[in-house]
Write a structure and sequence with these properties.
Oligomer: single chain
Helix content: under 10%
Strand order of the largest sheet: 1-7-3-4-2
Mean pLDDT: 93
Strand content: 25-35%
Length: 221
């Protein structure tokens, strides 16, 4: 399971700007206009000032002390799970400054920036594929693509959107709070009894999000 720092008491800064949410970073940078690194004093306001002084409309903070600016998001950056952003700002510990490869994203517009997902086949809906086994420890994952975790807000729809934006058409939910994506389901994963997938989703108690070493598996079609 991927581990993310989740600090429940930390909230996004309430400044004269719009908070868009927690977004994924990409290897070539989601925001490429300018950057400011300050692991001792970074705040949302410091990042905002740096970026707006350079006439950029969007800014984001990452890893606690990194600030990035731009006027658009690069392809591959899209909304992540809220708890992925949990690192306190060193200059204001009451606010969040992103996380590992995650941006707390802000901007001057009330409308969130347009995102361009990773390429994938045209699809319109999800189809439930049943309860499936996870692979034994050391043998990888039943769904070996991207992954996410949310102890408090995982839903089937959010996992599906996250995986589709990542370019994957298969997705599965496990342990009530884990989301896994893949191009296909590993052939060593086997069908399990539906009663094995019995854990409610952390963000929707009326829905099931897998179980112990069991995945509620879906496919975009």
């Amino acid at each position: 399971m991927q581990q993310f720092l989740a600090l429940a008491a930390i909230v996004p800064a309430a400044l004269a700007q719009t908070y868009y949410g927690c977004y994924t970073e990409i290897p070539a940078r989601a925001l490429t206009g300018s950057s400011l690194i300050d692991y001792e004093n970074m705040t949302i306001a410091l990042c905002e000032t740096h970026c707006t002084d350079l006439a950029f409309d969007i800014w984001g903070v990452e890893y606690g002390g990194e600030c990035y600016c731009g006027n658009a998001l690069a392809q591959g950056s899209f909304p992540a799970f809220t708890t992925d952003c949990g690192m306190p700002c060193p200059g204001d510990a009451a606010t969040v400054c992103g996380g590992p490869n995650r941006l707390s994203l802000y901007g001057a517009s009330e409308t969130a920036p347009t995102v361009t997902p990773e390429p994938h086949d045209p699809v319109t809906e999800t189809q439930y594929a049943g309860c499936w086994t996870e692979l034994p420890s050391g043998e990888g994952r039943a769904l070996a693509g991207a992954a996410g975790f949310s102890a408090t807000a995982m839903t089937v729809d959010d996992c599906g959107d996250y995986c589709l934006n990542s370019g994957f058409l298969w997705f599965g939910l496990e342990y009530g709070a884990e989301c896994y994506c893949g191009a296909t389901l590993n052939a060593n994963s086997t069908s399990a009894a539906e009663t094995d997938c019995n854990m409610p989703c952390s963000g929707d108690s009326a829905a099931t999000c897998g179980g112990s070493n069991r995945l509620s598996v879906y496919q975009w079609v």
